[in-house]
Amino acid sequence: MTPKHEKQEFVTVLVRDPRTQKEDSWHSYIDYEIFIHTNSMCFTRKTSCVRRRFREFVWLRQRLQSNAVLIQLPELPSKTPFFNMNNPHHVDHRRQGLQEFLEKILQDALLLSDSRLHLFLQTQLSPEDMEACVSGQTKYSVADAIHKFASLNRRFPIEDEERKKDKNDADSDSESSSSGLGPSDDSISCGCKASPASEES
Fold first, then answer.
1. pTM of this prediction?
2. Mean per-residue pLDDT of the chain
3. Beta strands in the chain (DSSP E)
4. Partners of 20 in the beta sheet?
5. DSSP 79
6. What's the CA gap between 141 and 143, in Å, rounded?
């Protein structure tokens, strides 16, 4: 084995950059950027960046729990009627709780095998579309959805250059193949668009 294969796998997850999004004339909500950087074979993309709101985290936890009934999932930060999106302390407390939730989830191999988790972290699909994809009711697979989102949201030319370089390396040396899970993005920084305002808080 080469030293490259002996590297320990890691998954870095950051929940950051809370932003207020306007849902309609009367309602607003806060969403958060979820940044993933990993070398884990479990992930289709090695770097990704999406925006999610609290109710989508609630949906994720419910779905993961229903598919892994023997596992005690970590709790989400409590949804209190006293939450004030204009209070930076409230917003940051929730952000920290969401990050701790994801950090614990990503340490469990069984939960990591759930396709919903990967769609949640690496696409901007709605819960309804994630369910349809996982159930085989869409024309695209889970990996297709992740790659499509990544290609639509690529903002850094260096990623394209790395992909071309990887392709040239693969063409010249067929044995130097990657994990087979698709091209990876190694850029640490990324920009995210706001998610569509179709979900409640």
1. 0.75
2. 80
3. 11-22, 28-38, 47-53
4. 30
5. -
6. 5
